[in-house]
Amino acid sequence: MTRFQRFATVLLGLVTTPAAANGFDMDVPTLVEQAADAGIDHRYTGPWEYFVGGGAAAFDCNGDRLPDLAVAGGTEPAAIFVNRSATAGKLRFEEKADAIPEPVRERVTGFYPLDIDNDGVRDLVALRVGENVILKGGPDCTFEDASRAFAFDGGRAWTTAFAATFEPDLAFPSLAFGNYVDRSAPGSPWGTCHDNVLIRPSGTEGPDYSEQTVLTPGYCALSMLFTDWNRSGEPALRITNDRQYYREGEEQLWRVSPGRPPRPYRSSDGWRRVQIWGMGIAEADLDADGYPEYALTSMGDTKLQTLDDEADHDRPVYRDIAYDRNATAHRPYAGDDLKPSTGWHAEFSDFNNDGRLDLFIAKGNVEQMPDFAAYDPDNLLLGRYDGTFDEAGEAAGIALPRRGRGAAVADFNMDGMLDLAVVNRGEPLSLFRNTGGETASGTRPMGNWLQIELSQKGANRNAVGATILVKSGNETRTRKIQIGGGHASGSAGFVHVGTGVAERAEIRIQWPDGEWSAPFRVFANNFVVIEKGADEAMYWYPPGE
Amino acid sequence: MVKRFSVVLVCSLITSTTAAGEPAWTERAILEHVDQEKLSGALSSEALHDLIAQGEVLFSAKFTDLDGAGRPMATQAIIPTKRKRPTDKEFHRTAGLDANSCASCHNQPVIGGAGDFTVNVFVSEGFANADFDTTDPQFSNERNTNHLMGAGLVELLAREMTADLHAIRRDALRKARANGEPVSARLVTKGVDFGALTAMPDGIVDLEEINGVDTDLVIRPFSQKGVMTSLRQFTVNAMNHHHGMQAAERFGARWTGEDDFDADGNPVELTEGDISALVAWQATLPPPKVSEPADSAWKEAAATGSILFDEIGCANCHRRALPLKSLVFADPGPLDAAGTLRQGEVAGISYDLGLLDWAAALEKDEDGNYLVPLFGDLKRYVMADRQVAALSNELLGQRFVERNVFQTTELWGVGSSAPYGHRGDFTTLDGIIRAHGGDARAARDAYLERADGERSALIAFLKTLEIKE
C-alpha cells in the first residue's frame, strides 16, 4: 500500500453526481411566466374566425437588435411591444400604441416579419380575416400601410398562413398566402376551402405585387413554409392543411421553380397522402444530413416526417418517425384529461443549450370541442442524446391552463437562453423568461450557445434561405433562415444555436445564392454578426455588456 | 513550510482495510471520491491543506481499470466523442491512454514538474475528422510536458488580465453607444499590450487589430499555445485524454445522456470534488524561484546575464514579473464554459494562496500588488520566420491558433525543465534561444551578436530560474 493509498483511507465523502432535481438527465430550463410584470397584457379573441390564428412575431423593429414583439389580437387590436429588457435581466416591454395604423390593427390573425423592399428595415406582413396588409417598417417601430405602394391586393380571404422566399433574379421576395375557409361559398364551411396564392414580384425600383398566381386546390391551410427539402437549392412550398373542412384534401408540397407556375407534387411523384388537422409546421435538420425533418401539429398525434429510403431527388416520400422519437405529444402530459391534444404552433429550438434541438408545441382546445382535451398544456419536448425527445413542459413551468395558438421563441433579454411568448386564445399572452437549468435549490447555467446574424448587400438583406452550419468537434448543427411556418407566427433576427460543452465552433454559411463562405472561427457564448464577403465574423454586445 | 500531508492524521487512521471496504492490497487507486457538496465558501488553512492532500493522492495515483482508467468507446477529444469501435489496446502513444498517472510525466525535478522528451504527448486538434484508432502523426502535434509550479498564480493573473480587457471593451462600447461614434481603445493590461479594438455605436466590436489573445479577449494561460482557460478545464481534458478517467462534469449524463460514456463499466470515475482537489493541489504548487548559486563564478555570470536579459529584449515578452492584486483563488473560476464546472453550478470554494508558506516570499510593488515572477506575459506570438523556422514544425493549428504561434513560455523553472521548446526538441537553452524567430527574432539576433562570454552569462542567469526540490 502506497502512502498515497494510505492517505486515501481517511478521505471522507460520498460519490456525487451532478444535480438532477427533476428526474431528467439533461438540464430542464426554468421558464418563469412574467407577462404582467413585463408590461404585456394582451389576448387573442373573437368568434369562429378567430378560433384559428393568434400569431406573434419576434423581430427588431427599432435597430437595437433586441427582439420586439408584434402580436395579433383577433377582434382585439393587434399590438407592438417594444423590448426594454435589461441584458440578462427581467423581461420588460412597452406597448407602442400607434405603431400600426389603426384600420389594420383589427382582425389580425398573424404576423411575419421580413425586409420586403430591401431598405434594411424589416417590414411586417399582417394576416387578417379579410384584407391582408403589408406594413412597411420605419424608424423606431413605426409601420405604414404599404399595400398600395407595393401594388399588393390583400384580398378578402380568411388568411391563416404565410411564407416568403427570394427567388433567383427577382429583386424582392415572393410571397405565399394560405387561406382557410371560404365563408361565402355555398355549403360553407364544409368542403369550401379557399385557394391559396403565390405572388411573385415584378419591378426593380420597388416591389410590385400586382400579379397573383392562384394555388388551387386549397385545402384550408393553417401553415406554410418554403423549404429546400431535396437540397436542390430551389425551395418548394410545404403546406399543412386542416382536414376539419376539406373534402378529399391532403397535405401539400408545391414545386416552385423560378419563372414557372407552381405545381403540386402528386402520388405519381411519390407524395403520400396524409390527412391531418394540420395546424403548424416546424422544420429542422435533426440528423444534420442536409435533408430537413418536419414537425406537423394536429389534433391528436403530432407528425415528425423524415425522408424515406424510397425518396429520391424529385420523389418526396416521407415517413412518420414521431412515435420512434417519442414526439407524438398526442394527449396532455399533465392532468386527468386523457382526450387527444390539439396542437398549434411548433418550433424547433434549443431551450437548454445542450446542443440538441428541442420541440415546442403550443396546445389548446379549439374552443369547446368535447372530444378533445380541455386542459391541454403546451409541450416542451427536450431533445435527447439518442435522438428521441422527453416531455418536460411541466417541469419547465409552461403547463398553464391556457389555450395556446401562436408563439415566438427568442432571447428577449440577450442572456443566451431562449425565452418564449405564447399567444393564447381568450386568455393573456404568456411570456416566459428562461432563467436557467432547474436544480433543487434554484437554477444553474446551462450549456454554451451562439447567436448568429447574417446580412448581405442588395436584395434579401437578411439572407432568407441561407443555411448556417455550426461545427464543433464531430457535431454539426444546422439552421435555416426562413420566413414562414409555425402557426401564424414568424420570427427574425439572431439565430440561436446551443453548443453544449463546445466552447468554440466553426461557422460556415451557404448564402441564398448557393455560395459557401469560408469557415468563421468563433467562441461560444457570443452574438456573432456575419456579413457576406467579410473575412472575419464580428461580435455584437448587448447594452451593458 | 507547511507539510503537504497531514502525517499525524494519516498515521492515526491507517488500518488493514480501506475506508471503502477494500483490502489493503486493493488495485484501486481511488478509494474514496471527494464530495463537492462538502466544499463551500472560503476554506480555512486546515480545510485547504486537506483538499490539497486529496489532490496529491489523485495526481500521483496510478489509475486502474477498477477506477475507470481506459475509455474503450470514447476518444480523447475534449468534446465527448464516441469511438467508432472499441479500441483493442488500452494504451496508445498518440491517441492515448498514454500515461498511467499525472505524476508519471509531471515529475522533473519534483511531482508537478516538467517532463523529458520521453513523455511528450500528442494533442489532436484534427480530431474532428480523424478515426481515433489511427497512429498517424498527421492528426496530432507532439508536445513536451510543461511544469505546473506556480500554476495558481498564473491562472489568477489571467483572470485579472481578462477582467481588465473586458472592462476596456465594455467602456468603449458604452462610450460609442452614448456618443454615436466609433471608439477605439488600446487593450493594455498589466503592461502587456494586446492591440486595439474599435467599438461601434450599434454594439459591434471590430477586432481586426487585436494581437496575441483570442477574439473573446479571454486570456487562456495554459498549454504551449495558450488555449486552456483554467486548471480545471485542463484537468478535465487531461484526465480523459491521458488516463481515460472521465469527469462527471463533462462526460456525465447531463451532457452525454449516459452515466458511463466511455463504456468501461465505471459510471463514476471522477467527481466534481475530485477535480476540485486536483485543482487545489496544482493551484497551490510553489512557484519556481531565482536561486543564488553557491559558485561565485556562476553568481557573477548570472548577474551579468540578468542585465543582458533585459538589454537584448528577452524581457519584452518574458516579463520578469506581472502584478497580481489578489491571491484569492476561486474554484470554479469566473471564465470557464459549460463542460467545465462553472460558478453558479455549485456553491464553489475559494482559498487564499497567501495561506501557503511560499506566498510570504512574493515581493510586492508600491501599490501593494504581488509580483508574480513568471518571466512571461501570457501573450501569443509568431515564433518562426523564413530564416528561423525551427519552431514552425507542427502539422496542425490548435484551437484557432496557427501552427507557428505560441504563448510566451514562462521561464520560471526553466533551469530545471530541459528539454526545451514546445516539442522538447532542444537540449540546451542556447539551442532554444537560437530557434526564436518571428516576433522574437530581434532578441534572438541580439543574443547571437553578443560575445561568447555574454551569451554564456545569459545561460548562467537562466539556469538560476529553478524549481526547488
From TrEMBL, chain A:
Signal peptide positions (record): 1-21
Taxonomic placement? Bacteria, Pseudomonadati, Pseudomonadota, Alphaproteobacteria, Hyphomicrobiales
Keywords from UniProt, A to Z, are:
Signal
Q: What is this protein called?
A: VCBS repeat-containing protein
**InterPro entries this protein is in?**
Crtac1, FG-GAP, Integrin_alpha_N, UnbV_ASPIC
Q: Does the keyword Signal apply?
A: yes
Q: Which Pfam families match?
A: FG-GAP_3, UnbV_ASPIC
Domain named ASPIC/UnbV: residues: 463-515
Which organism is this entry from?
Answer: Oricola cellulosilytica
Asked if the record carries the keyword Signal, the reply is yes
From TrEMBL, chain B:
Signal peptide annotation: 1-20
Q: Which domain of life is it from?
A: Bacteria
Q: Which GO terms describe its molecular function?
A: cytochrome-c peroxidase activity; electron transfer activity; heme binding; metal ion binding
Record keywords: Heme, Iron, Metal-binding, Signal
Q: Which Pfam families match?
A: DHOR (PF06537)
Kindly give the InterPro entries that the UniProt entry links to this protein. Answer: Cyt_c-like_dom (IPR009056), Cyt_c-like_dom_sf (IPR036909), Cytochrome_c_Peroxidase/MauG (IPR051395), DHOR (IPR010538)
Q: Which residues form the Cytochrome c domain?
A: 300-466
- PROSITE patterns registered for this protein in UniProt: CYTC
Q: State the Gene3D superfamilies in the record.
A: Cytochrome c-like domain
Q: Does the keyword Isomerase apply?
A: no
Q: Which SUPFAM superfamilies match?
A: Cytochrome c
**Protein name as catalogued:** Cytochrome c domain-containing protein
